[in-house]
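Render this sequence as a predicted structure.
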Amino acid sequence: MIYKKLLFSLSCFHAIIQERRKFGPLGWNILYEFNDSDLNTAQINLWNLLEDEAEDVPWSSLLFVTGEIIYWGWVTDNHDWKTLNMILDIFLDPDVVETDDYKYSDSGIYYAKDC
């Protein structure tokens, strides 16, 4: 169940950063080529990290590998790097797995439904 919730969050994160490209310099300072292989690699990493840990999610490892290694490889601008990590912190938050209906936005429209 933890894997499903985090995979959903990871997929939403990937969709958000992909969608920001449509807004040109308002979305990202530089046009990055995030693609499906980034999401697939992040999914495999998520699976491997959760498989090794019996009970606890290794949050620092998950955030570091996903943000700094998988996605950060594309990002060359410091402001974009900060934005990417800020978005990642919203979607890979411990509250995603600890609460039943974690809300990704203040409006409550986007949330992680209990799987």
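Summary. The chain has five helices and two strands. The helical segments are 2-19, 36-52, 59-71, 78-91, 95-98.
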